[in-house]
Specification:
There is one protein chain. Helix content is 49%, strand content 12%. The chain folds into two domains: 130 residues, Oxidized Rhodanese, domain 1 (3-Layer(aba) Sandwich); 209 residues, 3-Layer(aba) Sandwich (Rossmann fold), CATH 3.40.50. The two termini are 49 Å apart. With 364 residues, the chain is of the alpha/beta class.
């Protein structure tokens, strides 16, 4: 049975117990449907071999080899990860375009007696829905939580999400903190996988309620923000956290403790700033690295690198619609979240309420 997906949250998906990605491991790693398990009918090397024979010998010889390889791989899946499923199990299979790979897999499983579904158009159809979602206007009113580097924006957003507010954690989806030192364990997902995660978050929004996002530049690490969310960010009203540099520096030094554990990497990042800062400033920052003065380094980078960039972006785009929340420190983030909630309640976030507030530039 083939199903045609009409949305990312299509109810038809709920009728299956397991979603199986039959593509090669590299295709799965690049992107896949949420929750799908990888059971490739051809490995990357096997797929390349079949493709080469198709072009250089003949389609018939390629299909003959492919059939033998697919049968052997599906047999291993049945004897291995699928061996525990009973007769009532319902799998949904897809490949790149819903063609030969998923068709062969589905035929064999169907002969066993399982009621098998296939996604019409395969991954390509799913990807089209993702692209449509992330390039379309965000359907909920967007409010941006702004603030200079080290203002604890992400942590405050997490507290607001726990209180029931709609929040999209863009840095969490990108697995990157959005700054020079923002790399996270495990690395970033690919662009397509990031967009799929974002599309699912956008799909789940209640259009009648505002959604809070963190101020970002158009890139988070190596990933680009898709057009829909980026245009919403630059047009949204803002709640800006105003925190003294000393408090932000202490907080940042604590939050980036894992980066401080690798002073050579920190020094390398500081050296990468030579094209945009005087040599004596770079040398001063490197002395702070040598002294392991992480709060001092954080404060120096904020004063001379991060903060001026934020200020320039704000001067260029701010339309005055936002609210400023002054925080004396960052010791009590629950109290900070209270202040942001109060500002949100007084903010005119309704759609069409005003012009663009502009981008703050994110953590550069």
């Amino acid at each position: 049975m083939d199903i045609r997906l009409t949305s990312l949250s299509d109810p038809a998906l709920a009728g299956f117990d397991t979603i199986i990605d039959g593509r090669s491991p590299s295709e799965y790693a690049e992107d896949h449907l949420p929750g799908a398990v990888s059971l490739p009918v051809l490995s990357d090397d096997e797929r390349a071999r079949v493709g080469t024979i198709y072009k250089q010998v003949s389609p018939f010889d390629a299909r003959k080899l492919g059939g033998a390889l697919v049968a052997a791989n599906v047999a291993r899946h049945i004897a291995g990860p699928l061996s525990g499923h009973g007769g009532g199990w319902r799998p949904l299979i897809y490949c790149w375009r819903g063609g030969q790979r998923s068709g062969a897999f589905a035929t064999i499983l169907g002969q066993i007696g399982w009621r098998v579904g296939r996604i019409e158009g395969g991954y390509k159809a799913w990807r089209a829905l993702v692209v449509a979602r992330v390039t379309a206007p965000v359907r909920s009113p967007v409010v941006v939580l702004d603030g200079n580097t080290g203002s604890a924006k992400t942590e405050i957003l997490h507290r607001l999400a726990a209180r029931g507010h709609q929040v999209i954690d863009l840095e969490g989806l990108a697995n990157h903190r959005g700054s020079l030192f923002g790399a996270m364990p495990g690395g970033q997902p690919g662009q397509k996988l990031f967009e799929g995660r974002l599309a699912m978050a956008l799909e789940a929004l209640d259009p009648a309620r505002p959604v809070l996002v963190e101020a970002e530049s158009s890139r988070i690490g190596d990933l680009n923000l898709p057009r829909g969310i980026w245009q919403a960010i630059i047009a949204a009203p803002r709640i800006r956290l105003a925190v003294a540099v000393e408090a932000r520096a202490v907080y940042t030094a604590q939050s980036y403790a894992e980066a401080a554990a690798d002073p050579e990497r920190v020094a390398g990042i500081v050296n990468s700033l030579r094209p945009v800062h005087p040599a004596e400033r770079i040398e001063g920052w490197l002395r702070l690295v040598d002294a392991r003065d992480w709060a001092g380094l954080s404060a120096a980078l904020m004063r001379d690198h991060y903060d001026p960039r934020y200020d320039r972006h704000r001067a260029r785009h701010d339309d005055g619609r936002g609210r400023v929340v002054a925080l004396g420190g960052l010791d009590d983030l629950d109290a900070a979240a209270d202040r942001v909630e109060a500002a949100l309640a007084g903010l005119d976030w309704q759609p069409g309420a005003g012009g663009a507030a502009g981008a703050s530039g994110g953590d550069i």
